[in-house]
Amino acid sequence: MRDFLTVILGLCWSGAALASAAPVPAHEPVNAPERQLEDEVIYFVLPDRFENGDPRNDRGGLKGGPLVHGFDPAHKGFYHGGDLKGLTARLDYIQGMGVTAIWFAPIFKNKPVQGPAGDESAGYHGYWVTDFTSVDPHFGTNAEFKAFVEAAHARGMKVYMDIITNHTADVIDYAEGEATGYAYRSKGEYPYSRRGGPDGAVINPGFAGDDVAAAENWAKLTDPTWAYTPVVRSEERTVKVPAWLNDVTLYHNRGNSHWIGESSVYGDFSGLDDLATENPRVVDGMIAIFGAWIDTYKIDGFRIDTAKHVNPEFWQKFTPAMLDRARSNGINHFHIFGEIAYEEPTATLAAQVMAESGLPYALDMGFAKAAQLVVSGKASPRVMAEFLGQDAIYPGGAKTALGLPTFLGNHDFGRFSMFVRQMSGSDDEEELLSRVMLGHAMMFTLRGVPTVYYGDEQGFISDGNDQLARENMFPSKVAVYNDNNLIGTDATTADSNFDTAHPLYRLIGALAEARAASPALRRGLTSVRAFDHDGPGLLAVERHDPATGERVLLVYNTGATGISRNVEVSYSAVRVAPLLGQCPAELAAPGVARVTLPPFGFAACILETDH
């Protein structure tokens, strides 16, 4: 295996680049608050699955069995023991691959276990919040979170929190729920003014509708039985923090979303209690909660969960408030990006939600799908070329696309290597590794902020989405994880996987180093120069940074055979200099570079000018 890796690295990289593919040394501390968003390299991690720094908190201080405390390291859906101390202890490893910002799944206190009898799972992922002011005791303490942030900042690394405003843990039940299957009940069939439908008893007199944002209007919404009758068990009536979250009138109480139309915003997210984010009390409360995390810990950004399931007016108030709070703390480049989930190689939905809501950025779902299709050979490079051509539709145009976090796979959809294996139809390990390398090269060199999903740098592959894509970095006891053949290594997830010599770890470090050295790779606008459209093959892109004038030609071969092509470049270019991979020694003619790429190869070439 190692002999093959040497060959692959040699084919994809020039000799100088190969030498730089060794682990990147820890960077000297820099003024992280002044570093622009486009300059970041993000690492996304689930703290529970990363490193166990303190086994004493594995059960979160709770007595009883796994269905009480949620800890069962052999079960893929329960806590495994990772925590903030473990994450802090591994900062060398994370920074060693050129990462500048860490985004981690929510660390707020969660409901430890929920779900119907026989199908329970735990809040190890962090998205079932009961207390928005405290760190979940399975992960540590607020003091340990502060220590983690300070340790990251001392290295010049930023810290991004994953936050939720759409819902809380599943605490509210409905008296009619079991009989109805918790089906969604619409505003037309179940108006706020009547109990149980238009023919029901009059309730909430004087309420003028949920499109009237005035606090005095919402103060008239006092009876929550418009669609269902909310019920909360006595032991959970004060479980949510801050205390205002225990008021059931601040939730939509309309049953489960079916993910389209009205229910997408007003329905419970698979049973999770859906907050009425139109209510000014909820807006002000969420601004206070998350503003306090900025004030206290000086964090550098928010990834916003389920952003498209919240009404746009909420974001129009929340986002400016958070940016103002950050600036008042000296954080001038606070990164806010929303989760707008879809699985198509398009920018349309993300651009629409951003335009409606005022969210400055979104996770680039379209890029992930385009990369999966193109790198696997399932689609031609035309898919990526046409996707990049949509950058103009984002609010603010193509410049906005530079700040979108791009990714290849994640904790919800599954890992990139899994998609490549499935879509390519090949189980050849050598081919899979070379395709996965090509995907990472695209993510680091095309526009956007590259976001590495933890474990991808160790060849994790996953068996599916959700729980099946959330493997441990420390030795795992989950059988369905441990039977996977990881890419580029003989290890399994039963081993500790922090190998700084892993070929993907080395590749990511080299790509990050090249990106840091090139303004055009961080801030360059995109011109698609060439693409094959009837099968795998060439994609050629030129990126130009107007501020420095730097131009870079990027070429990728998504096919299993080598190619040599003449590619258009800017006529201002007079020389070519290698940045990554095999670049031509000189231009073939004014405005033309002849590029040669091995199977699944890539290159980045500086186009030098005389001015």
Largest sheet geometry: 8 strands, parallel
Strand order, main sheet: write it out: 12-11-10-7-2-1-14-13
Number of helices: 20
Number of beta strands:
21
Global shape:
globular
Residues in helices, as a percent range: 25-40%
Report the uncertain regions.
Answer: 1-30
Mean pLDDT: 94
Give the structural class. Answer: alpha/beta
Annotation keywords:
single chain; 611 residues; alpha/beta; Immunoglobulin-like; 8-stranded parallel beta sheet; 5-stranded antiparallel beta sheet; 20 helices; 21 strands; globular; disordered N terminus
Report on this model:
This protein is globular. Among the domains are: 170-276, no CATH class; 523-608, Golgi alpha-mannosidase II (Immunoglobulin-like), CATH 2.60.40.1180. Helix 13 (365-376) packs antiparallel against helix 14. The protein is an alpha/beta fold and 611 residues long. It starts with a helix and ends with a strand. 28% of the residues lie in helices and 16% in strands. The chain has 20 helices and 21 strands.
Secondary structure elements and their pairing?
Blueprint: H1 2-12, H2 15-19, E1 42-45, H3 66-69, H4 84-89, H5 91-95, E2 101-104, E3 108-110, E4 113-114, E5 121-122, E6 129-135, H6 142-154, E7 158-163, E8 173-174, H7 177-180, H8 215-218, E9 230-231, H9 263-266, H10 280-297, E10 301-304, H11 312-328, E11 335-338, H12 348-357, E12 361-362, H13 365-376, H14 382-388, H15 398-401, E13 405-406, H16 416-424, H17 429-445, E14 449-453, H18 479-482, H19 503-517, H20 519-523, E15 525-531, E16 538-544, E17 551-557, E18 563-568, E19 575-580, E20 592-597, E21 602-608
Parallel strand pairs: 1-2, 1-14, 2-7, 7-10, 10-11, 11-12, 13-14
Antiparallel strand pairs: 3-6, 4-5, 8-9, 15-16, 16-17, 17-21, 18-20, 19-21
